[in-house]
Amino acid sequence: MQAKRLTDELSVSAQLTVPEMAEAKAAGFRSVIVNRPDGEGADQPTFTEIEAAARQAGLEARYLPVETGKVSDEDAAAFGALLATLPKPALGFCRSGTRTATLWALSQAGKRPLDEIVRRASAAGYDLSGVAKRIETGGVPVDRSAEHHDVIIVGGGAGGIAVAASMLARKSGLDIAIVEPADVHYYQPGWTLVGGGVFQAGDTRKQMSSLIPHGVRWIKAAVAGFDPQNKAVILEGCRPVTYEKLVVAPGLKLNWAGVEGLEETLGKNGVTSNYRYDLAPYTWELVKNFRRGTALFTQPPMPIKCAGAPQKAMYLSCDHWLRQGVLNDVRVEFLNAGPVLFGVADYVPPLMEYVKRYGIDLSFGHNLIRVDGPAKRAWFKVSGKDGESTIVERAFDMMHVTPLQSPPDVVKASPLANEAGWLDLDPATLRHVKFPDIYGLGDASGTTNAKTAAAARKMAPVVAENLLRDLGVLDEPRAAVYDGYGSCPLTVERGKVILAEFGYGGRRIPSFPKWFIDDLKPSKAAWLLKERVLPAIYWKAMLKGREPMAKPGREVLEAAE
């Protein structure tokens, strides 16, 4: 825990964990204020978890969630009122501490001199110069004498870092900045294997600072908005940075709050999810200790990241129970909001063989809407063929939940979004359809490809080459194009994988000859690829600008008349 003192009454911090509540108490704090909305990050505990730990440590906890870049005057007033009533000293936190510091600064308008407010924030490591005018006048002007870069990349996930590395591998010395607030980068495809007892959680994380390519400027801040007309990205604190070219790759939003009661029971009462770093180990604890009862596995409406992940967790669990000789005492049900087991029809028959082997009950059109963890009950909205819907109840002893997923709020509310809220991109070139200086890739894309790391691996060189063409660095008359490639290594048992590879329209695109890996059959070779080869490719190739089997295609030029 690294608390930064603003006043005798308030210190601020980046995201705190459940164990750090006891540390906060030991450090002399008497209350905590949480300003980060639940579900904003993959490794973020919910307020319910923080509140329980705080109470156990003897701290009072309050929840005042504020979205990045959307600190209103009402939020600031509420923060001031909260601080006035809580036992002090108080410790406030969000993702980086900036929102909490901004709330405090705005709450002090008229109570402290402006220079003192800015100085105290600066001494704590928070640059609030972007809101200084607002503190003084109540307005929200944007200073256009902004930091500028030739290329700004929003997002330090798989897509963002891969694009930067890919560009630099083709042309060194480029002026590139990555905007990313997180300190840690995760290899999220590994969480399936954490939940299956194959990987340790620590195997799937590295410090962000170790992955930002050399020569790239890391702007450690969250994005509050996009201003494509002025070629600017607005950071939290109303600070703009301007660009010649922009790449948007912020990932997607996991909406844990979209299911009533889910946040309160995650990580206990037998409710888990491999979609969160800190919960994947709990999945394995549940699986290895499970001997009898009902296990439910859920999948929400599409689109979701790695659409096969909900069933991967189920198959690995069933395989363990089969090996332990307890599967006959376990009832397994897969409750899918969609109408089919898998979106690419060719892979359904081999998957159905495992459904039969494990005795899994399939329930389609079942969308999880409510969970009561202590009572071990879950409710699903069931869509009927006639358009009518009913609510059904299920009892469980263990439940693996896949959360609802949506575009990031900052994208959904921006001019960059399509009608569904995703990035409005040309599916081939990945250029924005309205703003030619903007490209996008990864999970926030409105293209119809699968939202997987494998897709980002193929998208990155397409974006990199097209950006370099636009900048006049790459002498290539044809644009690079993306064919919608995505891959889903379906872990149907420990030691075997069905390597599903496909592109736009559900067209199968196998990468290997059938004698090595037949994509329609479970394979030991594909398991080795999933367990050993793909993590190494991710860390040592994709994020380093090396692109084995990822060369982009080219647009077809019309013949001259």
From TrEMBL:
Keywords: FAD, Flavoprotein, Oxidoreductase, Quinone, Transit peptide
Cofactor(s) of this protein: FAD
Entry annotated with the keyword Oxidoreductase: yes
Domain Beta-lactamase hydrolase-like protein phosphatase-like as annotated: residue spans: 5-110
Domain FAD/NAD(P)-binding: 149-269
Annotated GO biological process: sulfide oxidation, using sulfide:quinone oxidoreductase
InterPro entries assigned to the protein according to its UniProt record, in alphabetical order: BLH_phosphatase-like, FAD/NAD-bd_sf, FAD/NAD-binding_dom, Prot-tyrosine_phosphatase-like, Sulphide_quinone_reductase
Keyword Flavoprotein on entry: yes
Domain of life: Bacteria
Gene Ontology MF terms in the entry: FAD binding; hydrolase activity; quinone binding; sulfide:quinone oxidoreductase activity
One protein family per Pfam: Pyr_redox_2
Gene3D superfamilies: FAD/NAD(P)-binding domain, Protein tyrosine phosphatase superfamily
NCBIfam families hit by this protein: TIGR01244 family sulfur transferase (TIGR01244)
Protein name (Swiss-Prot/TrEMBL): TIGR01244 family phosphatase
Source organism: Hansschlegelia zhihuaiae
